[in-house]
Specification:
By secondary structure, this protein is α/β, with parallel strands linked by helices. The chain has 9 helices and 13 strands. It has one domain (3-181, 218-247, 286-299): Rossmann fold. 38% of the residues lie in helices and 16% in strands. Helix 7 (253-264) packs across helix 9. The longest helix has 22 residues, at 95-116. The protein is globular.
């Protein structure tokens, strides 16, 4: 049995990943202060799906420098840092919230891993790539020009991680997630908003041409499977590496809208708006490194994943 410390336990990806760890016979210490969870209702529902005697939940704020004092009685083999403040557009409204919750907290987690001498696996984002002309984003591509405050904070965590890895011989691996969706996801994301509006027979707002907005939609189960495979592969020959975790088969926003419409048998009314600053035109993951290094193999296509979400959401939204 391996012992994991996982931050963001009440979050979308966090709670799904914890369930996968427990299903594989591991012990998990989950951390969350619920401050960034989208709603109390969602947090409670997510946590209620985790049922195991091998799970301990701690209410801690990792933004606080001395949070690790509350972990003295706990042992763990590695840290999986998934807690963060996400969102492109909202990052412009209050940058300090993103800096504190993404950069300061990450620094504290790095110090914890350094003190405990345990490897760190952390969530980065496709947002670090910004807008570029390549057909797909490769980890070796330049990522020094994000188009949002959120993207800047995630790139900063990568840079901090490499410095710590180099200086302290610390194993640190980052994963750039691409547009993760699924059951019990984030209410601020397009698929959730569109599903809710279409169910209510209300118009959906689309910022830009939906046929030209392209995203590498990735089902949460593929993300958690890939993350676990990376950890279990134990890449002892490299101290630091960044990986893309996406589907590798991008689709348009128009495709997303069509799949939701088909699932509910309703034609949406669309309110077209101008593009929002910070939104990128296209995200597309090159996943060759993840495939070759730890056998990453995403399986859920967008239509299948959205149908699953819509069936669940219809009851959740009652």
């Amino acid at each position: 049995m391996k012992k994991f410390l996982v931050t963001g336990a009440a979050g979308f990806i966090g709670h799904h990943f914890i369930k996968k760890l427990l299903d594989n016979g591991n012990y998990v210490i989950g951390i969350d202060n619920y401050g960034l969870s989208e709603t109390k209702k969602l947090s409670k529902i997510r946590l209620s799906t985790i049922k195991s005697k091998n799970f301990s939940l701690l209410n801690l704020d990792i933004n606080e420098k001395n949070f690790e004092k509350n972990l003295k009685t706990y042992e763990f083999d590695c840290v999986v840092h998934l807690a963060a403040k996400a969102g492109i557009r909202t990052s412009f409204r209050d940058p300090l919230v993103y800096i504190n919750n993404n950069i300061i907290s990450h620094q504290n987690i790095l110090d914890l891993c350094k003190a405990r001498k345990v490897p760190l696996y952390f969530a980065s984002s496709s947002s670090v790539y910004g807008n570029h002309a390549n057909n797909s984003s490769n980890e070796a591509d330049l990522s020094d020009h994000p188009t949002s405050i959120y993207g800047v904070t995630k790139k900063t965590t990568e840079m901090l991680s490499q410095v710590y890895s180099d200086k302290y011989n610390l194993k640190v691996y980052g994963f750039r997630f691409f547009t993760v969706y699924g059951i019990l996801g984030r209410p601020d994301m397009a698929y959730w908003i569109f599903a809710k509006k279409i169910l209510q027979n209300k118009p959906i707002k689309v910022f830009g041409n939906p046929n030209l907005i392209i995203r590498d939609f990735t089902h949460v189960s593929d993300i958690t499977s890939g993350l676990l495979s990376a950890i279990e592969s134990n890449r002892s020959n490299e101290l630091f590496k960044i990986y893309n975790l996406g589907r590798g088969k991008p689709e348009t926003l128009a495709d997303l809208i069509n799949y939701i419409s088909e699932a509910y048998g309703k034609k949406p009314s669309i309110d077209f708006k101008s593009s929002f600053y910070g939104d990128v035109r296209k995200t597309s993951a090159c996943i060759i490194s993840a495939k070759s290094d730890f056998g990453y193999n995403p399986k859920i296509n967008l239509q299948e994943g959205i149908y699953e979400f819509c069936n669940w959401f219809k009851n959740f939204n009652k």
